[in-house]
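Q: Give me a backbone?
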Amino acid sequence: MLVITPGEPGGVGPDIALRLFQEAREQPVLVIADPELLQARADALRVAMSFETYEQAQDRVSLDAGTMTVMPTYISGSKLPGRLDPDNVAGVMRALDRAISGCLDGEFAGLVTGPMQKSVVNDAGLSFTGHTEYLAERSGIEDVVMLLANTKMRVALATTHVPLKDVSGVLTMELLVRRLRILESDLRLRFQIRNPRILVAGLNPHAGEGGHLGREEIEVIEPACAVLRAEGMDLVGPLPADTIFTDRHLGNCDAVLAMFHDQGLPVLKYSGFGEAVNITLGLPFVRTSVDHGTALDVAGSGLVDCSSMRQALAMAGWLIRSREST
């Protein structure tokens, strides 16, 4: 059984969940959310939905189109689409925590998350940089890797939600070695790639131009790659970020490791926005997510595209089956 947390109540997470549950499913999927919010959003969208309650692990989870099985986790603030309310954060985080504990306990096979609004979580007094970091902390994992994938490419991130001015300081040889090991391991275990080839981007223009445009490639990135090549890992780079995503390079690799968030993800999203899936590597369970944000401006309008959530559900199911087959 997969579990969905829709994320920010004022965003499109509830919309895309309701849209998807109008379709029949082959795998049981449970939603942890406020049923009153879901009913209000269904009414706003004029979506006919029957809600069933899940409380115990033995409860039935419907596979039928037009029926959603919900584990109730209530919010105390606004249920209006497009409106952020810090009073909702406690309920949203309870839903996420319940989903994580269920995955760790084996009650759920994997987690699919809707988009969260980081700003409102922080406004409510919680330090929150994103799902990826929070999942690692709650799972007791030292480190994880954010990977986004579509049919054209897989892009992993050496650093995630870090201000650009801080990236160089965060980027250490130890960090790169750790994250490249996680990436290579999960490409083998979860994606069934026997000998993954990973392209490693440089940080600076022209990958530092031999040290004239920055020394991170010489002092951090190349030494990290050398350590891992000695272990047998197939790494190419550091390569200039302005050419690493060309067909010449992408045609002969299994993933790209970008050094920071907006170095790699704009290219991937341009290649197919709404078709990509966010995958957290290194966790003891499968977690996927959408490739977009809360889209407050279209929440409740009926204009939302649920393609990325559909892909996230499909990818979660595939990753679970792939791991079970090994």
Summary: The chain has a mean pLDDT of 94. The CA atoms of residues 155 and 256 lie 5 Å apart. The radius of gyration is 20 Å.
